[in-house]
Specification:
By secondary structure, the protein is α/β, with parallel strands linked by helices. Helix content is 52%, strand content 9%. Strand 2, helix 5 and strand 3 form a beta-alpha-beta unit. It is globular and about 80 Å long.
Length: 433
């Protein structure tokens, strides 16, 4: 990022024009804004253009074994076969002209990559156990992940959620984090897509403490500096608004010193903390929307990714119950995508079909108009919509996300826009020239 005024002589300027500002004034403006320029470059670097998973699957640590993603894929395909792909497409409200394409892509996805991001859960999904038991489960999880990495079967993104930094669980959470990362690091390289999740964050000081912990684990295990990054789970009122009335989550991002990779909304903990009755706790409750809008504002421009939460209405029971749950899940996934939350949580294999059907329908629905607008912008073709650079970048991001998750193909994207995937990424992440 380099938007500062260039004070070097410009021979292209017409010096005969009558202007009022002299060189000393321009130099003074540069001096005044230099610190702010540095702040923008460091604190708001923008997105790096790498892939973001469309979901995070949470699995209790004691149920995690090597090959779990394949097992979930098989269960998801079984659920789909039981209902029929037509029922899924109906539930996800897939457009008539897109049904065959979306169906084929969902079936291929469930066979090849049913889970994009796996979170081995040693917090709420695992619960409280004797220390010796949690130690054993943690080490077993790290070893199972190493097996998957060595076999080339690991999910693209993977990590653990450990117990929070509140006083009653702090020591246990730190020990679990240390055991998992140390066991994994000492058995080989860490996966590129490694993520650890810090839950129930209530204070900036907890993020600062997590930064210090990451630094010490890196030194102790010989990892490169700044190798470890973490997600902050936004599931407490204190993470949105502090006692002074400021947006805590914005301060948390910057206190993370570049290590905060994402903000994940926790639907049920957050809602319960506000006293919302269980029957009305939802990803679409007005309180949830407010929290997520604050998260979105806090993360804008920082490169920190956002994730919506989960629905606990699972596609289980008789046919009517499964299809109703798919409709609910598909609608919520689409709602999140339309609001700029490109990731969410899934809790059961039968949620995978509706996750991918709704996600693929979202990108297929908008592909042709987005590609046409981007083509016209790049080629300076006059059309019905006059897009500006920021909108062109958003169009490129939309298409790249669709490409990353399998909703779009590289050849069709290039055919429609004239851009290769590399050129598309370059639009998302412009050079700092």
């Amino acid at each position: 990022m380099s938007d500062s005024l260039d004070t070097s002589p410009d021979t292209s300027l017409d010096t005969s024009l009558d202007t009022s500002l002299d060189r000393a004034t321009l130099d003074d403006v540069e001096r005044r804004l230099a610190a702010h320029d540095r702040h923008l470059e460091q604190a708001y670097p923008g997105d790096d253009g790498t892939r973001q998973p469309v979901h995070t699957v949470y699995v209790p640590a004691h149920r995690y074994t090597a090959g779990l993603a394949e097992e979930w894929g098989a269960q998801a395909r079984k659920a789909l076969a039981a209902q029929g792909v037509g029922a899924l497409l109906d539930a996800a409200a897939v457009r008539a002209d897109l049904r065959d394409d979306v169906a084929a892509r969902v079936e291929a996805k469930l066979a090849a990559e049913p889970i994009e991001d796996l979170r081995i859960d040693l917090e709420d999904g695992y619960g409280d156990h004797p220390d010796a038991d949690e130690d054993a489960v943690t080490v077993a999880a790290a070893r199972a992940l190493r097996t998957e990495l060595d076999d080339g079967r690991a999910t693209p993104f993977v990590g653990i959620r450990f117990k929070c930094f509140e006083k009653p669980t702090r020591a246990r959470g730190l020990r679990t984090l240390d055991l998992f990362l140390s066991t994994l690091a000492r058995s080989g390289d860490l996966p590129e897509g490694l993520v650890v999740t810090l839950p129930k964050v209530t204070a900036v000081a907890q993020v600062e403490a997590m930064v210090a912990v990451c630094e010490r684990i890196e030194r102790a295990t010989g990892l490169p500096g700044r190798r470890l990054r973490f997600e902050v789970q936004v599931e407490t009122p204190q993470s949105i608004l502090d006692a002074a009335g400021t947006a805590t989550v914005a301060r948390m991002i910057h206190a993370g010193d570049g290590r905060v990779s994402g903000l994940h909304y926790g639907t049920y903990d957050y809602s319960a903390s506000l006293g919302i009755a269980a029957a009305y706790q939802s990803m679409e409750h007005p309180a949830a929307d407010l929290a997520k809008e604050v998260m979105q504002l806090a993360a804008a421009g920082t490169g920190v990714r956002l994730s919506d939460g989960s629905t606990n209405v699972l596609p289980l029971g008789d046919d009517a119950q499964v299809r109703a749950a798919w409709r609910n899940h598909g609608r919520l996934v689409r709602r999140s995508l339309e609001r700029g939350f490109y990731q969410g949580w899934d809790l059961h294999p039968a949620q995978l079909p509706s996750r991918f059907a709704a996600t693929y329908a979202f990108y297929r629905d908008g592909f042709e108009p987005a590609a046409r607008r981007l083509h016209d912008y790049v080629n300076q073709v006059s059309g019905a919509v006059l897009d500006e650079p920021a909108t062109a970048r958003a169009l490129a991001w939309y298409l790249k996300r669709g490409l990353d998750c399998g909703a779009l193909g590289a050849d069709e994207l290039t055919g429609a826009t004239g851009l290769t995937p590399a050129e598309l990424t370059a639009m998302v992440v412009p050079s700092a020239d």
